[in-house]
Amino acid sequence: MKYLLPIIALLITVSCNEKAKNDNTYFIEGDAPGVYNGMRVYLNKLNAANSPVVIDTAIVMNEKFHFDKGEKKDFAEVRFLSMETGNDRMIFIEGDEPLKIKINQDSLWASSVTGSKENKILYDFRADQAAYQKRTNEFKTARGEAYRSGDQQKGDDVTKSWMDAEEAYKNEVFDIVKSNPNKLVSSMIIGDLLNSKLIDTDKALELFDLLEGDVKETAITKSLESYLTKFSTTAIGAKAPLFEGKTPDGDVLKLDDVMGKVTLIDFWASWCGPCRRENPNVVRAYKEYHDKGFNIISVSLDRQNAEAAWKAAIEKDEMDWYHISRLMHWQDPIAKLYNVSSIPATFLLDENGIIIAKDLRGQALHDKLAELL
């Protein structure tokens, strides 16, 4: 996804302002073990384009550096430390509390900060995040080995354990947000969960609505809000945006023309392997529930020169329902209207055109249709 905050993607001295010699209290005190004298350390903030820009510089002397307190802030803000060697950065949150930073010269990402509750929450989250990622890699390896050896049952068991671990991790992270609705770190966590695709936009909107206080005025939260607002038009509970397109026969077909008691909007393409593998499941659902009021309209994201491939795939996969396409690949305006950035993607509508479910695949689609029809 090409969205959201660069800050979230980063989440995977003698100050230049001289202090009086008899005042040894600094807003940010830094330890820099192993860093040679004269090394510059930069304090960065995010500009209007959400890119880090330097706002102050410190110089390491005797493995120490410091920054004075900057201009007064109305609320906590994200800051980064960088050094004149390399592009590595350390992330932290600056509020009104003095901080102590210990630099890891081999990896600024692995540096630490103490002195505020918010940074403790942030770094505890990062530790949990790293542990979860390690477990994810272990599950991925174990499942691959099981399937390659022909042990289907073991592979399926590993997948279930993986999904259970993922659910447990997400619930822990959700609790952090729910317990800290007025903390900037909660906004950062929501963005990170979105970037890592552990939650969809509907869950992100649900968590975002919990935020309160000054955190809603921060640049990061406003950027997240702007992103989520775009997706609120296709959130569960929203009225599905209307659209039209040309059928394989060249006729104009509108969403309103195909609405049933339950309607599935299906974004796919003839070149999409996962879409083609899911098609037999959708065909079975259509045959079972069409007479009870289930309709489907498929929107193809095939390329301009692939009209023949689109039509051939419809016939081969026995997709005997409504189809439209502009043959514009990812530039398709309907895909943009529905914020579709990967396929297969589906939206299930009730008889009033309200979105009631998304991306139901396999047995989940059959279960929902049985419930509704």
Give short descriptive properties of this protein.
373 residues, alpha+beta, Immunoglobulin-like, Glutaredoxin, 3 domains, 5-stranded antiparallel sheet, 5-stranded mixed sheet, 10 helices, 16 strands, 38% helix, elongated, disordered N terminus
Describe the secondary-structure layout.
Elements: H1 6-10, E1 14-15, E2 28-31, E3 40-46, E4 52-59, E5 64-67, E6 77-83, E7 89-94, E8 99-102, E9 112-114, H2 117-148, H3 152-179, H4 184-195, H5 201-208, H6 219-232, E10 244-246, E11 252-254, E12 262-268, H7 273-289, E13 294-300, H8 307-316, E14 322-325, H9 333-337, E15 345-350, E16 355-358, H10 363-372
Helix pairs in contact: 2-3, 3-4, 4-5, 5-6, 7-10
Subcellular location: Cell envelope
InterPro entries: AhpC/TSA (IPR000866), DUF4369 (IPR025380), Thioredoxin-like_sf (IPR036249), Thioredoxin_CS (IPR017937), Thioredoxin_domain (IPR013766), Thioredoxin_ResA/DsbE_sf (IPR050553)
Domain Thioredoxin: 234-373
